[in-house]
Design brief:
Elements (H helix, E strand, L loop, with lengths): L7 H4 L4 H15 L4 E6 L6 H12 L5 E6 L7 H8 L3 E2 L7 H22 L13 H19 L2 E6 L6 H13 L5 E7 L15 E3 L6 H12 L5 H11 L3 H13 L12 H4 L1 H12 L4 H13 L4 H8 L3 H13 L13 H10 L5 H14 L4 H8 L8 H16 L3 H13 L1 H4 L6 H11 L4 H13 L4 H18 L5 H15 L4 H18 L7 H12 L14 H15 L4 H9 L9 H13 L3 H18 L2 H17 L3 H17 L8 H12 L3 H10 L5 H6 L7 H13 L3 H17 L10 H11 L3 H18 L2 H12 L4 H15 L5 H18 L2 H18 L2 H13 L18 H11 L4 H8 L3 H15 L4 H12 L22
Parallel strand pairs: 1-5, 1-6, 2-4, 4-5
Antiparallel strand pairs: 2-3
Length: 985
């Protein structure tokens, strides 16, 4: 259809009720009852299509139809068009009609000449019409009576808002003289056409076609674009066009020429496909608005608020007339019918361009003041203040700060940051002479929840302004808290040391100063311990604080949670040193349920509990943090807690759930502005996939983020989980057949961990990986020293997991006959640890040692258990290695699981996911499985949550992962690959 002319049926889509009413009036006129019908509405609403439908219906009966379109042809132009053209409809023989028509036509010519000579008047004006006008009216009456005597007469006048007053006066005369008779006068015009020329009171029936409903919009979209449209596409079409058929068809024709398909992805193009059409439509709909209504439209377009009680005083229009103007705008489909505001942003822009306001800045400021005086919600007022390019009143500063606090309480940190950023950027004008540092602190608190790097920048700017020592301590504390949340920054420890020295030296010895010093020391311990980038002076101060007894009463509270932070710091210090696991975690067990813990402290304590095999309390801490971060809209903390939880699930052998949690954290990070500043979720996901045997996929995750190359070194200084990329890079190098490179990476990681005070053998298993590589290179003495060091640390820490690790590590350095005893003890010790993967690995190594010593029956028993346990966990490399040795020992090899999701999804969910991954729609899946569409939606929702994906697109992208396709060759269990990774910080 090239500039396709739509059939009348298409143009009448959604107009069945209006057409039925017109046909009813036509039937009444045919039966001898005079009817006058007005079709009124904005341009493009379908008035002409309705008139054409009536004309087509009339042509099928014995009636006479005279049709005219008002085009501004001068005086009596409509009458000349009506009675000069050949009648539409039946035109049977008539003896008298032609004579009267000729007389009327001659009379019209004379009247037109008189009008040109003397100047005709307008109905209702001070100038009376020429005398010939009455003769014209009488002649029209006589001609119409002659026509009506033979058959019913239908007079159709389109665009009557352009009708000349002389023609309308004659038609008005006809209506008053013909009280009964087969006459239908059908006219169509825009709202309020011609002022008083066409008053509603003259018409028995007025038809007002409204905007099309979405069902009718969908029908037109399908007809024009030849395809079933998406709901979002239809909704956007309805909003942009305002349901106006003329504009909609023009937009759809442009979309068709641009070969746009009616999908949700293409909906954004609708508003921009034909801006000229939208502008013309808006201009036509506003053409006959009163000046007050246009002012209301302009004000609403500028301030974006449809409230008569505000708009009226804003433009000095009484509220009743303002409400009437709002209703007029809604009738023209400029304002949405079901909400406050314009139907679409594109309509708002078109209205603003049609009726621009000369002082939009002043209008916004007055609107905000009126809203504030009316006690409207503070965030509504602030939304207008941030549109101001230069706020300059003190009350505006108070409003923006209050709105920021309100947004934070409502869990919308991005909105809070918007308000506070606007205040900080214009602090010189809106709060002259005041210190902006407190506002920067509030802005940093908001940014910390979704853009920690931006928060640290704001706080660094506040520190550079050299505040007083106590104020500097407060800013430094906030800096340290955010650094703690993100896992440290290169200068966080030095910032805290500088602030601590200033407090000690310059602040008076008060309770407040003591509390600040305690908080600074505790935060310094949490940030500095295990950090890679702390300076030598900061490390010395950390060591000094660690050697001194606690400076606070650990049973009490304290401002800003000082006691909790001290507890968290001491717990983390004891866990990394390490001391005994029981003594390290005992002080915090009794206060874990205290709601005063901050999220950063909770995550740190959770990691310490995980190291101590206290997995249930650790997960309870992270679950509470997840719930609070979800309520606040804190994506950063949420993805950190999810990553920590995924790590805990990995430690306990729940690999399916670990992948799901890690994938969810990765999804959050990929959508966030701080994606390039986090490594924790990517490292956890890659290591979990590696344990599951998906090495190529794990490499793809790390390579996509640049964590196999240079970015790992850049980010490791400032991100929680910095040890994970280094550990994974060592594993990857070993799998690539580069053991020397792998050993170098492992030893470098060990040096950095020792320098940061991380001596816990479970913190990172780098030393387990390094031992066999050192032995291969003939560096037995170095391997022995490393083994002795971490065996001593394992005994000191004292958990079954740590002891089992040290026994397994030592067994790999001795002959098989000696190793059997060590590995038997390791397997027994690991029975008490929540670590089925390492328990399986110990059984595998024990079975191999027994096989080498000739005890085939005992070896087979251990290898069967190892293969079954590894398979249940999803550790595919370990299960495959145990299966190969089991086959050598004469045992029966178990069939491997179908994929990592086998133990996570129900049977119905797996079937639904498999069909969705093939590209089937929800309805097609329902038909294939003989279930309801709602059931399919429920299964997919559960599967998305379990698999850690956000939508069908991600499911399609990840489907091969979850189905276990493209399996890679497994690695032997001797090397680093199947060994469980350690805990990141």
């Amino acid at each position: 259809m090239a500039t396709r002319q739509l059939a009348l049926r298409d143009r009448l889509t959604g107009r069945s009720a209006e057409l039925a009413l017109l046909i009813q009036e036509f039937a009444a006129a045919r039966s001898g009852r005079r009817r006058a019908v007005l079709v009124r509405g904005p341009a493009g609403v379908g008035k002409s299509a309705l008139l054409d439908a009536v004309i087509d219906a009339a042509s099928q009966h014995n009636v006479t139809v005279l049709h005219a379109v008002c085009e501004g042809a001068g005086p009596h132009g409509v009458l000349r068009q009506l009675f000069r053209t050949r009648p539409r409809g039946h035109t049977g023989a008539s003896e008298g009609a032609p004579v009267h028509l000729e007389e009327l036509r001659a009379l019209l010519e004379v009247a037109a000449a008189e009008e040109c000579d003397g100047g005709g008047g307008v109905a209702g004006s001070a100038h009376p019409p020429p005398a010939g006008h009455m003769a014209v009216s009488l002649a029209v009456h006589r001609v119409c009576l002659r026509m009506m005597a033979r058959r019913p007469l239908v007079l159709v006048v389109d665009d009557v808002h352009h009708c000349d007053s002389e023609s309308w006066r004659a038609l008005n005369f006809l209506l008053h003289r013909v009280r009964r008779g087969p006459l239908l006068l059908l006219v169509a015009g825009r709202d309020r056409p011609g002022g008083e020329n066409v008053p509603d009171c003259l018409f028995r029936t007025t038809v007002r076609p409204g905007p099309l409903r979405e069902t009718h919009v969908a029908q037109l979209v399908q007809d024009v674009l030849d395809g079933a449209p998406d709901d979002e596409f239809v909704r956007t079409c309805a909003q942009v066009s305002g349901g106006n058929p003329g504009l909609l068809l023009r937009i759809l024709d442009a979309l068709r020429r641009a070969e746009v398909r009616p999908t949700a992805a293409e909906a954004a193009r609708i508003a921009d496909i034909d801006p000229e059409a939208l502008r013309e439509s808006v201009a036509a709909r506003m053409a006959d608005l009163s000046a007050e209504a246009r002012d209301v439209a302009a004000a609403v377009a500028v301030v974006g608020l449809e409230r008569p009680e505000i708009i009226g005083p804003l433009i000095r229009v009484p509220p009743p007339r303002t409400r009437a103007a709002v209703e007029a705008l809604r009738e023209r489909a400029l304002l949405a019918p079901d909400r406050l505001g314009f139907a679409h942003a594109a309509v708002r822009r078109a209205v603003a361009a049609e009726v621009p306001m000369p002082d939009s800045e002043g209008l916004l400021a007055r609107a905000a003041l009126l809203m504030s005086d009316a006690r409207m919600p503070v965030r509504t007022v602030a939304d207008h203040l941030i549109l101001l390019s230069r706020p300059d009143r003190a009350w505006m500063a108070d409003t923006l700060r209050e709105a920021g606090a309100e947004a934070l309480r409502q869990g919308e940190p991005r909105a809070a940051a918007r308000y506070l950023r606007h205040l900080v950027d214009h602090a010189a004008t809106v709060m002259p002479g005041a210190d902006p540092a407190p506002v920067r602190g509030e802005l940093a608190a908001a940014l910390a929840r979704f853009d920690p790097a931006g928060a640290l920048t704001e706080l660094r700017a506040a520190l550079d302004s050299r505040p007083a020592p106590c104020d500097q301590a407060q800013v430094a504390l906030q800096y340290g808290e955010i650094a703690l949340a993100v896992g440290g920054t290169p200068d966080a420890a030095d910032v805290l040391v500088t602030a601590l020295d200033a407090v000690r030296a310059e602040c008076p010895a008060t309770a407040r100063a003591t509390e600040l010093a305690t908080l600074l020391e505790s935060t310094l311990l949490l940030v500095g311990l295990g950090a890679r980038a702390a300076s030598s002076s900061a490390r010395a101060r950390i060591a000094d604080i660690g050697d001194r007894p606690p400076a606070v009463d650990e049973s009490g509270g304290g401002a800003h949670g000082g006691a909790h932070r001290a507890l968290a710091a001491r717990t983390w210090l004891a866990a990394l040193a390490p001391h005994s696991a029981a003594s390290a975690t005992e002080p915090v067990r009794s206060v874990l349920a205290d709601p005063e813990w901050t999220d950063a402290e909770s995550c740190t304590v959770g990691l310490a509990l995980l190291l101590a095999d206290e997995t249930d309390p650790a997960h309870a801490v992270w679950d509470r943090t997840l719930a609070r971060s979800r309520e606040r809209g804190d994506d950063w903390t949420h993805h950190q807690a999810l990553s920590c939880k995924a790590l805990g699930l990995l430690w306990t052998g729940a690999l399916d759930e670990a992948i799901a949690a890690a994938q969810h954290a990765v999804h959050i990070a990929e959508q966030a502005p701080w994606r390039r500043t986090t490594v924790l979720p990517f490292g956890v996901l890659a290591l979990t996939l590696s344990v599951c045997g998906h090495h190529e996929r794990a490499d793809a995750v790390m390579r996509r983020e640049g964590l196999l190359e240079g970015r790992a070194a850049d980010l490791a200084d400032t991100s929680r989980g910095w040890s994970l990329p280094a550990l994974y890079r060592a594993q990857s190098a070993w799998r690539r057949g580069a053991p020397a490179e792998s050993l170098d990476l492992l030893l470098a990681l060990g040096r950095e961990l020792r320098a940061g005070g991380a001596g816990n053998p479970l913190y990172s298993p780098w030393w387990e990986y390094a031992l066999p590589l050192l032995a291969v290179q003939g560096r037995a003495a170095e391997a022995g020293e490393l083994l002795d060091e971490y065996t001593e640390s394992s005994i000191r820490w004292g958990t079954p997991r740590a002891l089992g690790h040290s026994l397994i590590a030592r067994a790999r350095t001795v002959p098989p006959e000696t190793a059997v005893g060590l590995l038997t003890e390791a397997v027994q010790v690991l029975q008490a640890a929540p670590d089925p993967i390492h328990r399986s690995r110990g059984a595998y190594l024990l079975g191999r040692a027994l096989l080498r010593t000739g005890d085939v029956r005992a070896a087979r028993k251990q290898l069967e258990w190892a293969a079954a346990s590894a398979e249940r966990c999803g550790a595919r490399d370990a299960a495959a290695a145990a299966g190969r040795l089991l086959a050598v020992a004469g045992g029966r090899v178990r069939r491997p699981a179908a994929g990592t999701s086998a133990g996570l999804l129900t049977r119905a969910e797996r079937r639904t996911v498999e069909l969705a991954a093939r590209g089937l729609t929800n309805r097609q899946i329902a038909e294939a499985l003989f279930v309801a569409v709602r059931t399919v939606e429920t299964h997919l929702t559960h599967a998305y949550r379990k698999l850690g994906v956000g939508n069908r697109k991600e499911l399609l992208r990840q489907s091969a992962w979850w189905r276990g396709e493209d399996d890679q060759d497994v690695q032997t269990a001797d090397g680093p690959s199947p060994v469980l990774p350690g805990t990141p910080v």
